[in-house]
Design brief:
CATH class of the largest domain: Alpha Beta
Helix content: 25-40%
Largest sheet: 9 strands, mixed
CATH architecture of the largest domain: Roll
Strand content: 25-35%
Oligomer: single chain
Bound molecules: adenosine monophosphate, magnesium ion
Number of strands: 19
Structural class: alpha+beta
Strand order of the largest sheet: 1-2-6-7-10-15-16-17-19
């Protein structure tokens, strides 16, 4: 009897101890590291600090690995391809050759509004330096080395060749998105469910944040990057914003946008910004660039067509109306991601639920 009573008391004590403690503790670990030309912010929610740190290390090492593969700012397999003798097949490895095959296919699918062979144009406008007003002759010369046929790929053999002495691949519009996809795969393989990685204009949100709710992501005012004007709730999705903000150049008082139209060789008209949400980081990154180049009307047409073809994504265009406000135009299902709108700055953001002036309930 006494033994049974003791067991009962011990059982009660154990139950009380368990009740006092959350059944599965969630610890948030945040790290900031210089990566891919930006400050990457990594947030992991895990069962313990050790697990969170280990997962963040996985992210940091994967970002480093992809940067080492794709950077064209220093030596890398992609840079070596860009500097290879024209016509000569060089070893780039199966991963890079496959990634290049995929992004070149995206150039075709976007009617070349996105085109990774844009590097000669980036050079002509000196977008990696102080900027330069390229002449028509500069643009024509660069255009001759841009587009289909300036690279040859053998994805299975892992080789690639430049076919024009000035041809080059620019990773700026797709490298971060590609990296977020490989990070997502590594986290899934490591059993990490809840994470957010922010690479500046490009984010990945997996699972939930510390509170257990979807991750909150803010879309900035294209004229003032520090000001969030639309709030999104995302889980299992990547989000990418393209716009000029501080990334353009000003030469002799003329603003040169860094989003180039590979078909004309000139900076695309600057209307504001476009944000794309997609399960794939690469798709979000590629399409935000393509949609910026196409502008709101043609961008939304392409978004719609791609959805019909089975490419899940949503787009939100924020246009500067010239009168101090922003005008929104979005794909029909964009609203399901929206939880808040700064009604003092932007008109026309679609929201599914009954709304208050500044904040909408998340669903
Ligand atoms: P994002 O911020 O993802 O839109 O990428 C813009 C960067 O990609 C630029 O800074 C250029 O390096 C490069 N780029 C510019 N225009 C294009 C384009 N139409 N297609 C592919 N890459 C581009
Ligand atoms: Mg992009």
């Amino acid at each position: 009897m006494r033994a049974r009573a003791r067991a009962a008391v011990a059982g009660l004590a154990l139950a009380a101890a368990l009740a006092a403690r959350p059944i599965s503790p969630r610890v948030a670990v945040t790290r900031r590291v210089a990566s891919m030309g930006t400050t990457a912010e990594v947030e992991i929610v895990a069962a313990s600090r050790e697990d969170g740190l280990a997962a963040s290390e996985l992210v940091v090492s994967e970002l480093r690995r992809v940067e080492d593969l794709l950077t064209t700012w220093r030596d890398s397999p992609l840079r070596r391809l860009n500097e290879a003798a024209p016509g000569r097949d060089v070893e780039v490895g199966a991963e890079l050759a496959t990634a290049l095959r995929d992004v070149l296919a995206w150039a075709e699918r976007t009617g070349r509004a996105f085109d990774p062979t844009v590097a000669p144009l980036v050079r002509a406008w000196d977008l990696r330096g102080a900027g330069r007003l390229a002449s028509s002759a500069d643009v024509a010369a660069a255009l001759a080395a841009v587009g289909p046929g300036v690279f040859r790929l053998h994805a299975t053999r892992g080789t690639a060749a430049r076919l024009h002495a000035a041809a080059g691949i620019d990773e700026g519009a797709w490298g971060k998105g590609y990296a977020l996809d490989t990070v997502a795969r590594r986290l899934a393989a490591g059993g990490v469910r809840d994470a957010r990685i922010d690479l500046g204009g490009q984010q990945l949100a997996l699972g939930t944040g510390e509170s257990g709710a979807a991750w909150e992501v803010s879309v900035a005012d294209p004229r003032e990057r520090g000001r969030g004007v639309v709030t999104l709730a995302l889980s299992g999705l990547s989000v990418s914003t393209s716009g000029n903000s501080e990334r353009g150049r000003t030469v002799s008082g003329v603003r040169i946008g860094h989003e180039l139209d590979p078909r004309t060789g000139r900076p695309a008209p600057d209307f504001g910004s476009v944000t794309v949400i997609a399960p794939s980081g690469l798709v979000a990154d590629v399409l935000s660039t393509a949609f910026f180049v196409l502008g709101p009307r043609r961008g939304l047409e392409l978004s719609e067509r791609l959805r019909r073809e089975g490419v899940p994504q949503d787009a939100l265009f924020l246009e500067d109306d010239g009168g101090g406000r922003l005008r929104a135009a979005a794909s029909p299902s964009f609203s399901r991601h929206v939880t808040g709108v700064d009604a003092g700055a932007v008109d026309g953001v679609p929201a599914p639920a009954a709304s208050s002036l500044t904040r909408r309930e998340s669903r």
